[in-house]
Amino acid sequence: MEVTRTISLILASMSFVIVIGGATYEHLAVVPVWSSAVPASLTMFQGEYTLAAARFWIPIHPVTLVLLIAALILNWRAERRKFILVTLAGYAAVLAITTVWFVPELMAITQSAYSPTIDPNLTERGATWETYSLIRLAFLIILAINLLFGLSKPAEMSAN
After folding, report:
1. Less crowded by CB within 10 Å, the N or C end of the chain?
2. pLDDT digits 0-9 by tens, 70-125
3. Is residue 90 part of a domain?
4. Rounded to an integer, what distance in angstroms lies between the CA atom of residue 20 and that of residue 51?
């Protein structure tokens, strides 16, 4: 059973780190392009050949949540529990904030009508979104480090 507990935590950790990898990729390769000359630079989100980032983001979050919950259940009486619980709670908070503000704001910006003229208001909104998103990413990295520390703790069940 200890192997099952460890494998569940490894899979949850891998999935969580994949989320961070996707966010890092977007911040290095995608965000600089769409935020470079808003709204003209938003064409990557519009038209027939639009970037379909949702194909990654929509399935990865539920998978990660399920894996974290499974790891938490399987490691409930192990010392690892607190590391998994902190990560799960932090991730749930990030997803709630993402749902309430990040996604709606990104959709509002990226669905703006095309114009070859740079819109200072949209550019500022994009910069604000990017700054907060980098803070969100840093928080996720801290949560991942916490989760990975959990792997260094024993998988055996404690007496309590």
Report:
1. C
2. 999 999 999 999 999 999 999 999 999 999 999 999 999 999 998 999 999 999 99
3. yes
4. 19
